[in-house]
Amino acid sequence: MASSFAPVASVALAGDWTAPPVVLTAAALALALFAQGFARLRRRGRTDLASWSRAGLFAAGLALGVLPLVSPVDAAGDDYLLSAHMLQHVLIADASPLLLLLALRGPLVFFLVPPPLLRALAPVRALRALLRGLLRPGVSFSLWVVVMLGWHVPKLYDSTLAHPLVHDLEHASFVIVGLLVWTQLVDPARHERLTRVRRILFAFGLLALGHPVIDGLLFSGGVAYAPYAVQPHRLFGLSPVLDQRLAGLVMLVEQLLTFGSCIGILLWPMLGDRHRRTLPIEVGTL
Questions:
Q1: Are 101 and 184 in contact (CB under 8 A)?
Q2: Cα distance from N-terminal residue to C-terminal residue, the chain
Q3: What mean pLDDT do residues 118-147 have?
Q4: How much is the pTM?
Q5: Left (φ > 0), alpha (ψ -120 to 50) or beta: where does 205 sit?
Q6: Does 92 score more than 70 pLDDT?
Q7: CB–CB of 188/105 below 8 Å?
Q8: Which stretches within the chain are classed as H helix?
Q9: Could you tell me which residues are beta bridge partners of residue 96?
Q10: 6 - beta bridge partners?
Q11: Which DSSP symbol is given to 13?
Q12: Residue 73 Cα to chain centre, angstroms
């Protein structure tokens, strides 16, 4: 079976860069909003709240959101490898939102929208109601699960590869739900919608509910997505089954690094408090 595959060299895609107008416009808008907020806060003398490390973090997050959609990773995922497509998805849905929101945490997030625009948007009740609804923890969590599991149903997934508009909708939904759930976990504006314990459970739930996709990709003996199964040209010579397992591994590693690390960071102070409470008892028993 493997002998029927025609290997494709990676250099064949090296020059396959694109410039999707929607992606570049959204990135430019995000950069402009951050730059003006960053500059306003620094002009007030609060360089401690708008440090250059924050700017670097935001730039890294923006790069992880844009590069997978404009670089050869996009072409590789569309035409050859499920693993490349999965890498694209986890970067725009998890890694990029996480870094962007870490960069904005604290007062900087309140400077993100310029005053004239804020005054224009504030009276729009429908927009405020929509944002309040989306940022309810249960809503954010449910939307992430529906989007993450739904788009990986084979028929829906195959349709994204066949229809560019559906593909764009898929990518947009990944970005939106990623921003929603990481807003709950990072809590950049310190709204405290979730206690520390509930944030740990929130992250653990996301990690657990992503596993049906991961397990299906890692342990299935067949190929789940037809476009990759029938593609005779194999980038790096990877077979469809090996490529599918690599996609599962990509998702597993990324979610452990993001949600897993989040759980560990949130747990650490609680473990430290427990140690400090038990230490006098332990010393007194010696």
A1: no
A2: 69
A3: 94
A4: 0.87
A5: alpha
A6: yes
A7: yes
A8: 21-43, 52-70, 72-79, 82-90, 96-104, 115-121, 125-134, 137-150, 154-162, 164-186, 196-209, 211-219, 226-229, 240-255, 261-284
A9: none
A10: 233
A11: G
A12: 16
Cα 172 to Cα 170: distance, rounded to the nearest angstrom: 6
Instruction: Compute the radius of gyration of the chain from its Cα atoms.
Output: 22
The token duo for 230 is: 């029938």
Q: CB of 157 within 8 A of CB of 171?
A: no
> 156 with 221: CB under 8 angstroms?
no
| Cβ count within 10 A of residue 22 | 11
At position 238, the amino acid (one-letter code) is L
Orientation of helix 196-209 relative to helix 137-150, angle to 10°: 10
- DSSP, collapsed to helix, strand or coil, labels residue 235 as strand
Amino acid at 25: T
Q: Convert the pLDDT of each residue in 196-243 to its tens digit.
A: 999 999 999 999 999 999 999 999 888 889 888 888 888 888 888 999
The residue among 86 and 8 whose pLDDT is bigger is 86
Over 70: is that where the pLDDT of 275 sits? no
Contact 221, 241 (CB under 8 A): yes
Q: What's the pLDDT at 286?
A: 38
6/243 Cα distance (integer angstroms): 15
33 in Cβ contact with 113 (< 8 Å): yes
Closest Cα to residue 108, out of 100, 116, 120? 100
Beta bridge partners of 53: none
The position carrying tokens 């206690």 is 195
Of the candidates 256, 272, 271, 258, which has an alpha carbon nearest to the alpha carbon of residue 100? 258
Pairing state between β 233-235 and 6-8: parallel
125 backbone dihedrals φ, ψ, rounded to 5°? -65, -35
What is the model's pLDDT at position 202? 97
How many CA within 13 A on the CB side of residue 267? Answer: 11
Judged by DSSP in three states, 10 sits in: helix
